[in-house]
Design a protein that fits this description.
Elements: H1 2-13, H2 15-18, H3 28-32, H4 45-48, E1 59-67, E2 75-85, E3 88-98, E4 102-114, E5 120-132, H5 133-136, E6 138-151, E7 156-163, E8 182-192, E9 195-204, E10 211-221, E11 224-231, E12 236-244, E13 248-257, E14 261-272
Antiparallel strand pairs: 1-2, 1-14, 2-3, 3-4, 4-5, 5-6, 6-7, 7-8, 8-9, 9-10, 10-11, 11-12, 12-13, 13-14
């Protein structure tokens, strides 16, 4: 019981920083680039802005793990699967934050489609499950997230995203706790074929102010990427590496929080097809 209270106290004490963590930016690439993700494309866009998976060409499976603040009780785990079809891209995902004593779970069903070069739209339906030990039980909610991207030029991509726009709440909680609304807007700019910069702004209704994020990626040698980024509210510095081969990608990252210390992230993506 003491351990449960300690975990809950830690999570509550940092709630102004992360609140419910159902919409944490996902993937080793995003983690290394300061959490920037709203204008990114690929499998993990399913979690960050589902519009970004509209142009996936291969069946993809991804696994992600984050050892936040180097504590197993605050670990973040995720799995995702995407299936491109001639009608658009379908995806399913599962996230979990926490431990057996306290955990937040999200099950997602996503769909994205490109409407020409300049418009991609994605929608994900979410089932949320909050568990607090054996004594307090579990709480459920449903919501959705919507994203749009536009490849304005060969160099510039814009992205916007909203999570829980109708402000759903958890069932049966004593305080009828509302799930936060999260809005992101940002861009990705390709300075050269080897060098990309990203920037975005996020507003979370559970936090005061906004969060600003920026990240850089440089392909140092073929298929080897060096990344770095910064985030405000909370203040986080990050860096990482990525390597890609024909059928797989691996991305690792490290983050330094200005109060809570360091976190390590690792993500892998496997692709099937030509």
């Amino acid at each position: 019981m003491k351990k449960l209270l300690l975990i809950i106290t830690l999570i509550i004490s940092t709630s102004t920083l992360f609140a419910y963590d159902f919409i944490h930016p996902m993937g080793g690439r995003a983690a290394a680039m300061g959490g920037t993700s709203v204008a990114s494309q690929g499998l993990w866009a399913m979690q960050n802005n589902p519009a970004g998976m509209a142009n996936l060409e291969k069946i993809s499976l991804g696994l992600y793990y984050e050892n936040r603040w180097m504590l197993p009780e605050t670990a973040y785990k995720c799995g995702a699967f995407a299936l491109p079809t001639k009608f658009g891209t379908l995806g399913v995902s599962f996230n979990q934050f926490g431990s057996s004593k306290y955990n937040e779970n999200k099950f997602g069903l996503a769909y994205a489609k490109a409407f020409g070069r300049y418009l991609q739209i994605g929608l994900q339906l979410d089932y949320l499950l909050l568990k607090i030990g054996n004594e307090y039980g579990s709480f459920k909610a449903v919501t959705f997230e919507l994203g749009i991207q536009s490849q304005v030029t060969d160099k510039l991509t814009l992205g916007t995203y909203i999570f829980n726009p109708v402000n759903f709440s958890f069932e049966q909680t004593l305080n009828h706790e509302r799930i936060p609304i999260v809005f992101r807007f940002g861009l990705a700019y390709k300075f050269t074929k080897d060098f990309i910069g990203q920037a975005e702004i996020e507003k979370n209704t559970d936090r005061e102010g906004v969060s600003l994020r920026g990240g850089l990626e440089y392909e140092a040698v073929r298929n080897l990427y060096i990344r770095a980024g910064v985030q405000t509210n909370p203040g986080i510095l990050s860096f990482g590496l990525g390597y890609a081969i024909r059928f797989a990608q691996i991305n690792v990252a490290a983050q330094l929080h200005n109060e809570l210390g360091s976190s390590i992230q690792i993500g892998m993506i496997f692709s099937i097809g030509k």
